[in-house]
Each structure stands twice: as structure tokens, then as C-alpha cells.
Write a structure and sequence with these properties.
binds ligand UAG, 16 helices, nine-stranded mixed sheet, about 500 residues, binds 2,6-diaminopimelic acid, binds magnesium ion, globular, binds adenosine-5'-triphosphate
Length: about 500
């Protein structure tokens, strides 16, 4: 493709003159000098760690034919200067791949907790409605039945437009994606034509990255501001949890129609009453199209919210109520979210991805309602992340557990003992908790101490199959370790 034609077809760079761009053929777009292919257009991005402008020579040596930059760089290929390479990258990638998101139904899900769970619910519903689906999120990317690994919950703009193109080629009808606040602030989803934007909730997380909660909320609201911007169509919807304190920030960001959902107030999608049992939940969902009686294997009041959000989107797309009901009832669960490890032991072991104060409290409140014996919690906090959530997570664990084993999560570049000190320094009830840095030994202690009918919660890593220590990833899976240690105890 000629660079001039590519640039002409973008939404923001199209005014550039042909003589500025020359007669250059472009075969790909790259943002990482280490991945540049011959004939590519290299876009210099200023990152949080390094500045892509510093890698421009290496990109050109590897075969980049032109460069998009924010400041002059010394190379002997054409350089186009733009005010924001972040915006330019998204715009160019979107144009290069032919605006793929406009050809499909794209649902974006944002909020602190519940995004992955909601993508699984929506995938089940749209699939049950005979649509071909794709999902991008924390666990992986799925196109039809094929799964691919991802580095981020919401990958960069280049990855996204490229893969949206592959999804369109694969005849995908509906794409369901998690949209993180990092992605929104870093412009990773710019140019995506979302049809629905869903808001789950906001509670403390990522205050290492966002200076305060209002910045975090503002970042989330960008998804709603983006709704309908690409095409200007008034057929988009914001599906919003109006029980959440920040819901108005999201509502005010969009001019599109709102589908509200609630457990506490009058809303388009609402539930008046529910029952919680060891086998899941049952409740009636009121929608303008009728009532949907739901029974589900998902546990916890918070999952009612996730289901209401999913129904909000499905209702908006006129999916048959029986189809919605069937899909939700058939969903067995989400990997690493309230996942039971059952090796016929006389106590219960739950692995859950709760890694924020709010999610940990929610999952422990659920356990509190279901428990038949004592509660033992194994939990840690990730390194290089929000330090101020550490004592709060420890408090949540102590409030709802009889015994807590504080341990490592992903220490990353931090000293695990320092993370554990941040969690536990303020705690006084020393007879109710242990600090055991090795996660395996911590799980072992919980399993050794469990009595009949007790419940063990292993929180924080859910589906993760590694531990990140100083940039090296070692295989570690809470579910595997728990199963192995339970079996060892049963065989002794
Ligand atoms: C803190 C953060 O968000 N970092 C993200 C950011 O990386 P960065 O700014 O450090 O990038 P950088 O290394 O400085 O590189 C800048 C530019 O130079 C280029 N470069 C770099 C080196 C080189 O040799 N050559 C070169 O060209 C890079 O390709 C890039 O274009 O941009 C990258 C590309 O989009 C992301 O992969 C990366 O996510 C890292 C891995 C990360 O851990 N992010 C987490 C915090 C995150 O984003 N999490 C959210 C989920 C959060 C949640 O809701 O729970 C997510 O969406 O995953
Ligand atoms: N709607 C909800 N409200 C509060 N907590 C929830 C909700 N849904 C799930 N949780 C809790 O949060 C944990 C993470 O859930 P999930 O993975 O669905 O969220 P997420 O938003 O995708 O998280 P991440 O930002 O890490 O990708 C679950 O294991 C559960 O403990
Ligand atoms: N998306 C979240 C996941 C945290 C999971 C937890 N296991 C940790 O490593 O802190 C983050 O990157 O902050
Ligand atoms: Mg997620």
C-alpha cells in the first residue's frame, strides 16, 4: 500500500501532502523496533519506560521505509511529524486494516471488577444466539474456538486493529472485549467503533498508575465518550450499573442511549429479590421485554450484577429471552473465578482472582454466607502495583477469615518481604495470621490446618499459571498446587 494512500484514508492525517510523503510502498506498521519488518512504517511512541524515538535508527536499519514521530529524528527515510503518535498509530492501523470494527458488533466492558466474568457471560449469550464471537481479555484472545495468548488485558492499538481485521475475515459477528483504564489512558482502543460500552463498577485499584480515584474514573469514562464517535451513528448504548457511586461520570460522558441496571433502584434491567445457595444463585430479572427467571452456577451477589449487565447488552440486541436464560444457565463458570478445587477432600477449596480490596471483600462475604465451618484465606499482593491497597486487602482478609496466611503473589521487581510488611505491619491480632513468603508453603499450611467443613480461599492469582519474580515467569498454578497438596494429605 502506498503511504500516501494510507495517510489519505485516515481520519486525522489525511491532509498531508503527497510531496511530504513521497512515493513509498508500506507493507506493515510497527511500533516496536525489535519487530520491524522490511517495508514497514515505524511509529515512535513515548512509553512509560523508554521513548520509541530513541529506537528509530535501529528500526530503519531493520527496513522501516518511513517514520511517524512527534519530534525531529535523524534518519534518511521520510519522517512525518504529528502532534500525537499515539493517535496517529491508532488512526493509521485502523485505516491500514480497513476500519474492521465498523463491520462487526463490538462490545467494550470496563470497570474495576467483573470484566472478564462479563465477557464470558456475553460470549455464552451471543454464541447461544448462533452468532460467531471473538473475545479479548485478561485470560486470552479467542476467535471462534481458537485461543491465542495476550500480553495485556487490553492490548495496544496496532494489535487490536490487526486482530479485529482477522476477526472480520473469520466472519465474526460480535467481538466482546475488556477495556482497562490503562488502555483508555494510553489510547490503545482509539478508533474502535464500539456498539455497546458496559460499566461494571469502580473501587480502589491501580493507584500506582492513576494519581487518584477521579483520574481512574475519568479514564474509564473515555470508553463512554468514544461511543458513537467513529461513525456518528445514534444507535449505540451504554449499559451502566446505577448502584455504583461513579455511574454518573460514565453517563455524562456519552450522548448515546443508556440501559441502566440495578439491584437497589428502578432501572431498565433490575432484580428485586434473589437467593444464594452453595450451588449458585437464583433470581428473576425484570426487563422491558419480560421477566427472565435465572438459575446459575455462578456464586456471589456480585455475579448478579455481572448477569444484569450481560442481560442489558443482550436485551439491547433483541436476543430472545429464552436464549439468554439458556446461555446463562449453561455457563459452568469462569476459569480462576470462584473455581472449586475438588479432590474429594472433606473441606472446600476455592481459587479466586480477587486482587483488589473490594473484590476480596465481595468474595469473602459470599464465603461467609455459604460457610459451614471456619474460613482460612491465603492471599498476597502483586509487586510494582498500588501499594495503598495492600493493608486494605489484609483488613478484608482478617475481617472475614478465622485464619489468614499472607504470602507472595507476583512480586515482580519488589522484595516480597517488603510487600508482606506493607500488608501486615498494622495488624495486631498476630495469633490469627501467618506470614509465609513461599506461596506453595502458604497453601500447604492452609491445607494442613483445614478441618472438616472448613473453607479455604486462595485469592489473587485465579487463572494465572505463573509467578513473576524479577521479570522471570516460573510456572505456578494455585489450582494445580492445591490439588497436589490435598491429594498428598489424603494419601497420608
Ligand atoms: C505500565 C503500562 O501500562 N505499560 C504498558 C506500556 O508499556 P511502556 O509504556 O512501558 O512501553 P515502553 O517499554 O516504554 O516502550 C515505548 C515504545 O518504545 C518501543 N520500543 C521499546 C523498546 C525497544 O527496544 N524498541 C522499541 O521500539 C515500544 O514498542 C513502545 O512502542 O505499553 C505497552 C504496549 O501497549 C504495554 O504492553 C505495557 O503494559 C505492561 C506490560 C503492563 O504490565 N501493563 C499493565 C499495568 C496493564 O496495562 N494492565 C491492564 C489491566 C489492568 C486491570 O484492569 O487490571 C491491561 O490492559 O493489561
Ligand atoms: N461485579 C463484581 N463486583 C465486585 N467484584 C467482582 C465482580 N465480579 C467479579 N468480582 C470479583 O473480582 C474478581 C475478578 O473478576 P474478573 O476477573 O471478572 O474482573 P476483571 O474486571 O476482569 O479483573 P481484571 O481487571 O484483573 O481483569 C473475581 O474473582 C471476583 O472475586
Ligand atoms: N490486571 C491486574 C492483575 C493483578 C493480578 C495479581 N495477581 C497481581 O499480579 O498483582 C494488574 O496487573 O494489576
Ligand atoms: Mg479481566
Amino acid at each position: 500500500m502506498k503511504l500516501y494512500d494510507l495517510v489519505s484514508s485516515t481520519q486525522t492525517l489525511h491532509a498531508l501532502e503527497r510531496d511530504v510523503l513521497g512515493d513509498i510502498d508500506i507493507h506493515s506498521i510497527d511500533m516496536d523496533s525489535r519487530q520491524v519488518e522490511r517495508g514497514s512504517l515505524f511509529v515512535c511512541l513515548k512509553g512509560l519506560t523508554v521513548d520509541g524515538h530513541d529506537y528509530v535508527q535501529s528500526a530503519v536499519q531493520q527496513g522501516a521505509r518511513a517514520v511517524i514521530a512527534e519530534k525531529p529524528v535523524d534518519v534518511d527515510v521520510p519522517v512525518v511529524l504529528v502532534p500525537s503518535t499515539t493517535h496517529a498509530l491508532a488512526d493509521l492501523a485502523n485505516a491500514f486494516y480497513g476500519y474492521p470494527s465498523q463491520a462487526m458488533n463490538v462490545v467494550g466492558v470496563t470497570g474495576t471488577n467483573g470484566k472478564t466474568t462479563l465477557t464470558y457471560l456475553l460470549d455464552a449469550i451471543f454464541s447461544e444466539a448462533n452468532q460467531k464471537t471473538a473475545v479479548i481479555g485478561t485470560i486470552d484472545m479467542k476467535i471462534g474456538d481458537t485461543r491465542y495468548p495476550v500480553n495485556n488485558t487490553t492490548p495496544d492499538a496496532l494489535f487490536l486493529h490487526k486482530n479485529l481485521h482477522l476477526m472480520r475475515e473469520a466472519d465474526v459477528d460480535t467481538v466482546i472485549m475488556e477495556v482497562s483504564s490503562h488502555a483508555l489512558k494510553q489510547g490503545r482502543v482509539l478508533g474502535i467503533d464500539f456498539d455497546d460500552a458496559v460499566y461494571t463498577n469502580l473501587s480502589q485499584d491501580h493507584l500506582d498508575y492513576h494519581p487518584h480515584m477521579d483520574d481512574y474514573a475519568y479514564a474509564k469514562s473515555l470508553l463512554f465518550a468514544q461511543l458513537g464517535q467513529s461513525t456518528g451513528h445514534q444507535t449505540k448504548s451504554a449499559v451502566i450499573n446505577i448502584d455504583d457511586d461513579y455511574h454518573e461520570v460514565m453517563m455524562q460522558a456519552t450522548g448515546q442511549s443508556i440501559v441502566s441496571y440495578s439491584l437497589e433502584k428502578p432501572a431498565v434491567i433490575h432484580v428485586d429479590d434473589y437467593s444464594l445457595s452453595p450451588n449458585g444463585l437464583s433470581f428473576d430479572v425484570n426487563t422491558p421485554a419480560g421477566i427472565i427467571p435465572i438459575t446459575t452456577k455462578l456464586s456471589g451477589k456480585f455475579n448478579i450484577y455481572n448477569i444484569l449487565a450481560a442481560i442489558g447488552v443482550a436485551y439491547r440486541h433483541h436476543i430472545d429471552l429464552n436464549v439468554i436464560k439458556r446461555a446463562i444457565e449453561h455457563l459452568e463458570g469462569v476459569p480462576g473465578r470462584f473455581e472449586l478445587v475438588d479432590a474429594d477432600q472433606p473441606f472446600t477449596v476455592v481459587v479466586d482472582y480477587a486482587h483488589t480490596p473490594d473484590s476480596l471483600m465481595n468474595v469473602l462475604q459470599t464465603i461467609d454466607e455459604l460457610k459451614q465451618g471456619r474460613v482460612i484465606t491465603v492471599v498476597g499482593c502483586g509487586g510494582d502495583r498500588d501499594r495503598s491497597k495492600r493493608p486494605k486487602m489484609a483488613d478484608a482478609a482478617m475481617t472475614y477469615s478465622d485464619e489468614v496466611v499472607f504470602t507472595s503473589d507476583n512480586p515482580r521487581t519488589e522484595d516480597p518481604h517488603a510487600i508482606l510488611a506493607d500488608m501486615t505491619n498494622h495488624l495486631t491480632e498476630t495469633d490469627r495470621f501467618d506470614v509465609i513468603e513461599s506461596r506453595r508453603e502458604a497453601i500447604q499450611t492452609a491445607i494442613d490446618n483445614a478441618q472438616d467443613r472448613d473453607m479455604i480461599l486462595i485469592a489473587g492469582k485465579g487463572h494465572e499459571t505463573y509467578q513473576d519474580v524479577n521479570g522471570a515467569r516460573y510456572h505456578f498454578d494455585d489450582r494445580e498446587v492445591a490439588r497436589e497438596l490435598i491429594q498428598a494429605r489424603l494419601n497420608n
